[in-house]
Amino acid sequence: MFRRGPDLVLAALVGLGLAAPQGAMAQEQVREAGNIGVGVGGNILGVGVSGKYFINEANAVQALVGMGSGGGTLLVSADYLYNFDPFIKQEEISVGWYAGFGGGLILGSSVLGVAGVVGSDFDLDELPLDIFFEYRPTLFVSPAGAAFRADSFAAGLRYYF
What we know:
161 residues, 8-stranded antiparallel beta barrel, mainly beta
């Protein structure tokens, strides 16, 4: 059921990484107030276009709009994230982690997911890109009942403007 999603995300990540213009934010940090990242991402609910907006260096919101993993459905998800200070910080790369909460809705199948989020991001300031990996334990609610998934993960890549 979820096999197409990871393959699609991997192909989109490679394509976006190869097509990203160089130098638009050279010498700036990805984690700056007002920066907007746009790319591709996927989670247990589906795959699509991922966006992240930094309110300030520590607080951000992210969203995903795309295709639900069941096919033929629209996925919309949003998260609030608190970004902790990077544990690796060099001139061109930083590796940090974040935590937050959010939720998603698969329109057309009436499935709602409420998730906790713990993730790590690799910020390549020279390009400027971030590559992220998240653990997202999720409670799914639908007319058929509720189910908790502790094996929920997400990943993606975003280019910052």
